[in-house]
Please model this.
Amino acid sequence: MRRAIFPGSFDPIHLGHIDIGRRASELFDELIVAVYDKPLKKLLFAPDVRMALTREAFADVPNIVVKGYSGLTVDFCSEVDAKFIVRGLRVFSDFEYEFRMALANQHLSPGVDTVSLITRQEHTFLSSTTVREIASLQGNVSAMVPEHVALALEEKFRPKDNT
Ligand code: ADP
Model:
């Protein structure tokens, strides 16, 4: 079985991630969307919420499974017996980071290959950071995330009623 993982923080999942996940699911027998537990960056949503939002986004794709992980990505690959790591590439600035990470993973685990998919033009400037920033200022993110994620963001940033 050709199994790949698509790792990320998914804080929260957006249409750019969803497009990469769906396209990758056509390349492999099984795609594990791997939600990283404790990235170095500051998170908005707890791991279980990020996983639930991600799971709902791919609920209609039979060969996508969503799992959480912590530790090294290559260790998770061997745990689930995956030989491929899928990553998405947006702007040029992604390339250097992704290139370095792919080489590091190759060094740590030569049997695992990184497969990078180029984003669609309309998702080039879409990132979880942008989505969080707009949502935190009560902006409209409905063109960037699925409805269930927009609702979760709305809930998160709803102004508190202090009366
Ligand atoms: P990480 O914390 O590992 O960067 P992210 O959740 O930000 O995790 O992203 C996971 C993967 O999705 C990365 O490979 C990232 O490059 C890719 N990605 C993020 N945004 C987009 C987008 N708009 N189009 C395509 N790929 C994207």
User: Anything to note?
Assistant: Residues 8-10, 16-17, 20, 39, 87-88, 90, 94, 119, 123, 126-128 surround adenosine-5'-diphosphate (CB under 6 Å). The chain has one domain: 3-123.
